[in-house]
Amino acid sequence: MRPPPRARPEVPQALHFVRLAQGSPGQWVVLPGGALQVLGLAGKADGGAQRGWLLCLHGEVLLDFPDGNFVRLRPGEGYAATGPWEALPTRTGSVLLLVAAGS
Predict the structure, then answer these.
(1) What is the pTM of this model?
(2) Which contacts (CB < 8 Å, 24+ apart) does range 77-85 have?
C-alpha cells in the first residue's frame, strides 16, 4: 500500500503590475508592503510631494517639471524624482511604478 501523497504548499500568485494599474485608471494602487505603487495614467497626474524612482512599465510617459524641463520614459526606463512633477501619458494604457524614497 502506498503512503498518502504529501500536501504541497500553495504556490503564491504573481502580481501583474500593468493589469493591476490599468484596472483603476487615474488612481495610485499601493502594493503589499507599501513601498511600491502603480498608476495607470488616464490623463495628467500630479506627482506633488511623491518622491522616489519612477519607472515606466507600459506605454510612454512624459514627466514634466516646474522649471520647464521634462523627461520622456519608455518601458523599462526610470527616473529618480526629487522634486515636484507631473506625468502625462503619450500612449494609451501607460503605467508608472513608483518606488517611494527611503524604501
Answers:
(1) 0.83
(2) 78/53, 78/54, 79/53, 79/54, 80/52, 80/53, 80/54, 81/47, 81/50, 81/51, 81/52, 81/53, 81/54, 82/51, 83/51, 84/47, 84/48, 84/49, 85/47, 85/54
